[in-house]
Amino acid sequence: MKTGLRNLKVPFGTAKFAKIKNVRYLSWEDAFDVEFADGLCILEPHATIRRANKISPPATFVSLEIEDWCQGGFYVHYDTGETAEVSWSFIRELPPARPTTVAETPTRYRAGRRPPKTKKI
User: Fold this and answer.
1) Phi (first) and psi of residue 85, to 5 degrees
2) 22: helix, strand or coil
3) Domain annotation for the chain: domains and CATH numbers
4) Is the model's pLDDT at 62 over the cut of 70?
């Protein structure tokens, strides 16, 4: 297998546009299966889409709609009247890496102490 096929998502900001061919909600996975025109299929967790669109927890999935004009995204409709808008780039790209924390403990101060020696009687 080629190394390029191992990581299907690409670094943030470098993905090429591809139309969304099909989207379906898999209730047993609680995820969306997104198929693109170039043949790539990605399983995106529902929790990720909820968090990104700030959907309330009691809202349940009702319907799914692919954008008509350029097929560059899709809409998820909920029973509370809320709508999640998902673009193609949200699915195909990885978010930027989190910065490393500044307040890490230096190696010399880590818990590497030896237990105290006990005297044998």
Assistant:
1) -105, 120
2) strand
3) 15-92 (3.30.2020.30)
4) yes
3-state secondary structure of 99: coil
- Report the alpha-carbon distance of residue 49 to residue 105 in Å, rounded: 35
Strand partners, 44: 32
- The model's confidence at residue 92, banded by pLDDT at 50, 70 and 90, is confident
pLDDT score recorded for residue 24: 95
Q: Which residues on adjacent β-strands are paired with residue 66?
A: 74
Nearest to 8 by CA among 44, 40, 34, 48: 40
For residue 42, which amino acid is it?
Answer: I
Q: Is residue 5 within a helix (H) or strand (E), and if so which, with residue range? A: helix 3-6
Tell me what percent of the residues of the chain surpass a pLDDT of 70: 67
Q: How far apart are CA 50 and CA 31, in angstroms?
A: 11
**Residue 98 to residue 34: CA distance in whole angstroms:** 26
> Can you read off the two tokens belonging to residue 76?
């998820």
Task: With beta carbons less than 8 A apart as the criterion, state whether 59 and 76 touch.
Answer: no
